[in-house]
Known about the structure:
With 136 residues, the chain is of the alpha/beta class. It has helices at 10-21, 62-74, 90-95, 112-132; strands at residues 2-4, 28-34, 42-48, 51-56, 79-85, 104-105. Helix content is 38%, strand content 24%.
Amino acid sequence: xxxxxxxxxxxxxxxxxxxxxxxxxxxxxxxxxxxxxxxxxxxxxxxxxxxxxxxxxxxxxxxxxxxxxxxxxxxxxxxxxxxxxxxxxxxxxxxxxxxxxxxxxxxxxxxxxxxxxxxxxxxxxxxxxxxxxxxx
Length: 136
């Protein structure tokens, strides 16, 4: 889970993550599709490092996150990376039931250049956790 306040780069970071993981067309299992009213919010499933990785970026809507978690469980994804607004408690509680789950606080920059750098740092943290995730 990438956790942070509204409008601080969670979705931007997820789009960077998508660009990194989907560099090769054969990695795309379910293509990126827009979610909700924000053209930047999306969901998709990718293959990466032998794992099925779901990305879900509509984290400012608590009522959408919990059903998304269940849907990706049913699709047998090895890893789910999703954004979550830090004001919500249910998604944070739900993630605790999964062994190996990680909550990554969104790094926040003071200016455009700093925000871009922090988004890339957060993307790399997410990739590191995907690589560490063991599949059964």
